Amino acid sequence: MTIAAVRTDVMPQVWLGCLACYNDGKLVGEWYNADIADGITAKRLHAACGITTDEAGYVSGEEIYGPHEEMWVMDHELPIEGECSPSTAGKWGALFGELMPWEYDAFRAYVRTGLGSVDGDGLPDLAEFQEGYAGEWSSFDDYAEHLWDEMGYDDEIPEHLRPYIDMSRWSSDLEFDYSVENASNGAVHVFRSL
């Protein structure tokens, strides 16, 4: 069995399929970037699979009831569960299009956390993601140490008391104010709870 990893630095892909073909027992579809999924026509989808359709959407030489005009996303690399419409895939693709490729993995992790608000279509608020993202770290403890240094706490604590500071406990307490999700490379993404 081969397990394929999803590339996290490229636009998510969706497998767009023809529902009429699927209902007739044929798996006809193609992988597309999510950001163009809602713009793919049935004619273009069938042509990509080597199938010609007439102007009404009927497949040449087949007697299947009705035209082949309805499509559905049957598989995808989006951070959502289950199938979706091409329109929904296109909206997710547009969101990813507003991000830099290096942010894709963090955005997927953010969606998994359930943090932030969503719009009427169930899409997360990108501004909240960008405001709450505290970066990718090898561990939350590394982030906590960085924050400790950045806040200048060592400068405020007398030298003779510094050995008594338990960084692991401080980090553990601090983590209650954050969400931590695994990154695809073994590190973690840290998000501030806003």
From TrEMBL:
Protein name, as recorded: Antirestriction protein
UniProt cross-references to InterPro entries, sorted A to Z: ArdA, ArdA_dom1, ArdA_dom3
Pfam family, one: ArdA
